[in-house]
Amino acid sequence: xxxxxxxxxxxxxxxxxxxxxxxxxxxxxxxxxxxxxxxxxxxxxxxxxxxxxxxxxxxxxxxxxxxxxxxxxxxxxxxxxxxxxxxxxxxxxxxxxxxxxxxxxxxxxxxxxxxxxxxxxxxxxxxxxxxxxxxxx
Length: 137
What we know:
Number of domains: 1
Helix content: over 70%
Structural class: mainly alpha
Low-confidence stretches: none
CATH topology: TerB-like
């Protein structure tokens, strides 16, 4: 189970990823809900953070996320970036802005193992697709 700090970080990374291309798609929202369920992030946590991110400077939020991620384990870093990649791929492709953000984190900032990251992303994708199928209207 994550700490509130971990959950806050995942919410911020979701926002940065989903809004990187200028719009948040419906699939990105559904995959975010799946991530919240999987990570046991409460609605209260989301509502206390997400609405306020839109008013903040994205560069500041990203810098804050990087600083916070540096204090986390490699395992958490991989999990977090894998969630970003899963959400970015939720609509079948990854926009250039999303790819640049994810590449910066996994390669330049944290030198994460790509094969491990892709394995975790694949697990997250399966979970999200199952979540979407169950919760489809």
